[in-house]
Specification:
Blueprint lengths: L3 H16 L5 E4 L16 E4 L6 E5 L4 E5 L4 H8 L4 E3 L10 H6 L7 H4 L6 E7 L5 E4 L6 H6 L9 E11 L3 E9 L2 H14 L4 E8 L2 E10 L14 H7 L2 E5 H5 L18 H7 L6 H13 L2 H8 L4 E11 L3 H11 L5 E6 L19 E11 L6 H12 L3 E2 L9 H7 L2 H11 L8 H5 L4
Parallel strand pairs: 1-2
Antiparallel strand pairs: 3-4, 4-8, 5-8, 6-7, 6-8, 9-11, 9-12, 10-11, 10-14, 13-15, 13-16, 14-15
């Protein structure tokens, strides 16, 4: 941890750096990006915020952590767990940063209670493109930026300091994997579990049209046995093998990171012997993401596929669908997209009176996040299957997060992501448009 004085000195140095720059800027950081889309920033001046990666303080009485914006959740959890506390919502992958989850969308198995990450962030200090910083919360003069910051993806400013709500934890998490064989029953039972609010965590996995699991977790201070999914064994395989399981709270929080959910299979890590050779320290999302970025820079796989006449489309998406329409989405998905497995995570609005205009969700609706990350074979134009998904999500009154590739036309995009409110915020907080706007950054990939 660092002192507030150290933070203030770093902040002043950063401001001085920005004030020397006259043209457009972009924030640069050394940590692995939260984004899964590649973009060309063009001619911009990069401002390095990578040093803003520390926890400043943890208030165990009021259960609040103050952290710098580039702090990873791995770093934050390592500190809070010492006091038997954790952030209300911890996104599944260790390298995700607090600031990134606030300006994008962070979700996890506690979202059925606490909503998305930004809903339990109490305060943000945001660095604006003119070198000024503003502290915003739900009640002060900058509350429009507080509510408008989620889903802005760094186009209004960057969170350099964040106050995060914490909750108490126990030593272990007991897991139950509940199996269902048809969508109607599956989503009906999921809705019942979310509504009852009797457990601490809820997510799920769909392996096929007839094999679906809801996984519920509860804190406990006793465990008859403990499983370990940090090396040879894979957590996602255990879902089909065990009805009841126990993990330490830390292993539960990072249960998906070892195999990047199940995306590690792209590196043949579903085989124990390959995992052993690969080594425990290399089984994590940070390594996989670097490999993915390397493949983008040097697309050996694409070249080999072309040699054999194969073509694929990358479909890496998270979408949220109202629970009463999930049956229609999963039927469409199995027919046209056919990626398996699929991650499921229910979420609700934490504060029914709060409105986040750039990513509006109905306060009376349970949403279900569908996460799917793979390639599909294709003989269509680039983006064909992603557009099918975007159209279906729109038809079902769902929402699509923008961390990965988007194919919306200009007018369609702004219809979905509230151009009127975004323009007000952009005019007020980045009037010279020194930062890219949301469409440029998330669709045009500039």
């Amino acid at each position: 941890m660092i002192s507030i004085e150290e933070y203030e000195k770093k902040k002043q140095d950063l401001i001085n750096n920005i004030l020397t720059v006259k043209n457009n800027i972009a924030i640069s950081k050394s940590s692995v990006s939260n984004l899964f889309r590649h973009r060309n920033q063009g001619k911009v001046n990069k401002i390095d915020v990578s040093k803003f990666n520390n926890v400043i303080s943890i208030d165990t009485i009021n259960r609040i952590a103050i952290v710098e914006g580039m702090t990873t959740y791995e770093t934050l959890v390592d500190e809070t767990i010492k006091y038997e506390l954790m952030p209300t919502v911890v996104p599944q992958l260790k390298p995700i940063t607090i600031g990134g989850a606030c300006s994008g969308l962070g979700i996890e198995a506690s979202s059925f209670k606490y909503g998305l990450v930004h809903e339990t962030v109490l305060e943000l200090e945001i660095l604006l493109s003119n070198g000024k910083t503003v502290i915003c919360n739900k009640e002060n003069e900058f509350r429009d930026l507080y509510f408008g910051f989620p889903n802005s993806y760094g186009t209004l400013g960057y969170a350099i300091c964040v106050k995060v709500k914490l909750v108490p934890i126990k030593k272990y998490v007991q897991i139950q994997h509940l199996q269902y064989n048809n969508p109607e029953q599956y989503f009906s039972e999921l809705e019942k579990i979310v509504t009852e609010q009797k457990v601490d965590f809820v997510d799920g996995t769909i392996f096929s049209e007839t094999e679906m699991y809801v996984t519920v977790g509860e804190f406990t201070n006793t465990a008859p046995f403990l499983s370990d999914y940090t090396y040879i064994n894979s957590y996602y395989k255990s879902i089909r093998e065990k009805k009841v399981d126990y993990l330490t709270v830390l292993d539960y929080i990072w249960r998906w990171d070892t195999d990047w959910f199940w995306c590690s299979k792209n590196y043949f890590l579903q085989y124990p012997v390959i995992r052993y050779i690969w080594g425990k320290k290399n089984l994590n999302s940070k390594v996989y993401k670097k490999l993915m970025e390397l493949n983008h820079r040097y697309p050996v796989v694409d070249i080999v596929n072309k040699m054999f006449g194969k073509k694929t489309e990358s479909v890496i998406q998270d979408v949220q669908i109202p629970i009463d329409k999930c049956k229609y989405f999963i039927e469409f998905f199995h027919e046209y997209i056919k990626i398996k497995p699929i991650w499921i995570c229910p979420t609700v609005i934490y504060d029914k009176n709060a409105v986040y205009p750039l990513y509006y969700m109905s306060p009376d609706t349970i949403y279900v996040n569908f996460g799917f990350w793979d390639t599909v074979p294709t003989n269509k134009e680039d983006g064909y299957y992603n557009r099918l998904i975007e159209n279906k999500v729109k038809e079902l009154d769902g929402k699509k997060s923008l961390y990965s590739s988007s194919y919306y036309a200009y007018d369609e995009f702004w219809e979905l992501y509230n151009k009127t409110e975004y323009t007000k915020l952009k005019t007020k907080y980045d009037p010279e448009y020194r930062l890219k706007d949301l469409y440029e950054k998330c669709v045009l990939k500039k």
